[in-house]
Design brief:
The complex is a heterodimer of chains A (115) and B (130). With 115 residues, chain A is α/β, with parallel strands linked by helices. Chain A is built from 4 helices and 5 strands; from the N terminus they run E-E-H-E-H-E-H-E-H. Chain A has a single domain, classed as STAS domain (Transcription Regulator spoIIAA). In chain B, strands 1-2-3-5-4 form a 5-stranded antiparallel beta sheet, covered by helices on one side. The longest helix of chain B has 22 residues. Chain B has 130 residues and is an alpha+beta fold. The chains are: A alpha/beta (115), B alpha+beta (130). At the A-B interface, helix 2 and helix 3 of A face helix 2 and helix 3 of B.
Chain lengths: 115, 130
């Protein structure tokens, strides 16, 4: 299954609920478009909910890094929510776990944007 | 298997690798990681090696012995010097949007070998059976 997402506003934050695979091609392009479209609406605070992302490859990791850079360049912030073990392992191996701000529950993640 | 230089070939390599990994008795997580790094090698072959040239092909060989699973993925491109692959963990590379494929192969497999062909590059990925 390739990646799908839905977007919902929560207290001034845009939560992107992602599901499926973030891999080279359709999945990584979908993530790129989702973040770009969110930024285009003027929303620069993005929470990526990865709870239903069960598979990611190096392209997907790269796309997440590029998304973080794009959001920060727009003066905003992007945080990650609900990492599966597989994604968590990948971010740890690639030393990106500390690059991203990561949360296990949505309320804490939303609150962290106003800190 | 001999495959065209298209992204659909990547999926074939990945699903074949996962089937072999399960046949070898690896647990679900390990089998998934083996499939993922086979995918990375196939992506490199299709995109960076053959550059999607329809005249060039990707060759994938899977061998399951009593002791290990061995996967070899070869392209017909200009060649790759593994010593010149940037370290994705270096501070100047950590925020780059690409360049982690070979690193993940080395992280998840027991052995990763590069062999220069004429023309092309063969990557061999080895994982010892549980």
């Amino acid at each position: 299954m390739s990646m799908k997402f839905t977007s919902r506003p929560v207290g001034g934050i845009t939560v992107l609920d992602l599901s499926g695979k973030i891999t080279l091609g359709e999945g990584s392009v979908t993530l790129r478009d989702a973040v770009r479209d969110t930024l285009a609406t003027g929303s620069t605070k993005i929470l990526l909910n990865l709870g239903d992302v069960n598979y990611i490859d190096s392209s997907g990791i790269g796309e997440m890094v590029s998304a973080l850079t794009a959001v920060k360049n727009a003066g905003g912030d992007m945080k990650l929510l609900n990492l599966t073990k597989k994604v968590k392992d990948l971010l740890q191996i690639t030393k990106l776990y500390t690059v991203f701000d990561i949360y296990d529950d949505e309320a804490s993640a939303i609150a962290a944007f106003s800190k | 298997m001999r495959l065209d230089s298209v992204l659909e070939s990547v999926e074939k390599v990945e699903t074949t690798a996962e089937a072999y990994a399960r046949e070898a008795g690896f647990d679900e997580d390990t089998a998934s990681n083996i499939a993922m790094v086979a995918r990375e090698a196939a992506v490199n072959a299709v995109l960076h090696g053959n550059k999607k040239d329809p005249a060039k092909h990707v060759t994938a060989i899977f061998e399951l012995s009593d002791s290990e699973l061995r996967m070899s993925i070869a392209d017909e491109g200009p060649g790759l010097d593994p010593d010149k692959i940037p370290d994705p963990l270096a501070p100047e590379n950590i925020m780059k949007g690409s360049g982690r494929g070979v690193f993940l192969m080395r992280a998840y497999m027991d052995e990763v070998h590069f062999r220069q062909l004429t023309p092309g590059t063969e990557i061999t990925l080895v994982k010892r059976r549980p």
